[in-house]
Amino acid sequence: MTSGAHEIDVDGEARTFEVVAPPLLGESGGRRAPVIVLFHGFASTAANMIATSGLGEMAAAHDVILVAPQAIGEPTAWHIDQPEFHDSEFTDAVLTQVRASQCVDPHAIWLAGFSAGSAWAGVYGCSHTTGIAGLLMHSGLAPPICPADSTPNIYIVHGVADPFVPFTGGPQTVGTGTVLLQSVPDSAAGWAATAGCDAAPSTRTVGDRDTITTWTGCRGGRTVAFQAVAGLGHAWSGGTDAPGTLNPGCVLVQMLSGASDPMAECAASLPEPAESVTESS
Question: Which of 4, 95, 140, 235 could cross-link to 241 by cystine, CB 3.0-4.6 Å?
C-alpha cells in the first residue's frame, strides 16, 4: 500500500481514505505489516484524526500501516442504521483493498475509532468479525454486541470527565435512535463477560491519571482491556488535544510491533508531572 489519498467508487459515489505507510514497506525481508484502520469522529476528517491522535507518526515509525477512511455527510458522520449512506459497503471496500496488499499481515488488522468513529468501529467490527484481530474504541463505546464465540481483542478507552459521552452512562443517540448506555466500567465488564474472560481482572496504573483494567483468559486467547483516564474530557488520550496521559494508539502500535510491555514503553514518554487536559468536540 502507498501513502496518500486513495479513492473507491461505492454505489456510484467517490469515497476516500488516507494511508500512512512505513517508509520501507515491502523492504523488510518479507515481513508483512500489521494494520490499524482508524475512524474519525462526528464532523471531523480522516486527516484531522491522523494528526490529533498522533498515530500517523507512531505507526509509520514502527512499521505499522495506518488507514483512515473519510466519512460523508453534512456534517460528516458514520451512519449506523442508515444503509442509504453505504458506510458498511465503503468499509468493506477499504478492507478488501487492505487485505489484497501483499505487504499486509491479514491476521493483524485492528479497527479503531474515536467518538462516533468508535461506535462505528464497534458496530461494524462486531458484524464483520472474520479477519478482525481487535477493536480499539475510544470515547464512544458500543454495548457488547459481538458474537460470544467470535469477540476479538477489545481495548476500551474513556475519559472520566467526558461531557459528551458520560462515563456514568445514560441516553445516547446512535444512528437515528436513542439507546440507554450503561456506565463505561459496567459496559467494559459486559464485553469481558461476553468474550468469556476470567471473572477477576487485573488493574494497573500508569502515571497519575490512567487506570487500566485487563481481563485475560478470554475465548481464543484474547483479552479485554479498559483504560479509564482521570480528568480527560472528549479528546484522544495522549493526543495533541490531551497531552500528559497514556496514548492508546501508542500502546496498540507497540503491541503490534511485538513489544514485551507496550504500556511501559508508552508510559516512558509521559511528562512528569502530567500536563493538564484540554477538551475538543
Answer: 235
CA angle, corner 200, sides to 145 and 188, nearest 5? 30
d(C-alpha 175, C-alpha 154), whole Å: 22
- pLDDT mean values, one per 10 residues, the chain (281 residues): 94 97 71 95 98 96 96 96 96 97 95 97 97 98 92 98 94 71 95 96 94 97 98 97 96 97 91 41 32
Exposed / middle / buried, residue 172 (Cβ in 10 Å: 0-12, 13-18, 19+): middle
What SS3 class is residue 163? coil
- Taken in order of first residue, the domains within the chain and their CATH numbers are 4-267 (3.40.50.1820)
What global pTM score does this model have?
Answer: 0.93
CB contact burial 33-72 (16+ within 10 A = b; e otherwise): bbbbbbbbbbebebeebbebbbbbebbbebbbbbbbbbbb
Q: For residues 100 and 236, what is the distance between their CA atoms, to the nearest angstrom? A: 30
36 touches 112 (CB < 8 A)? yes
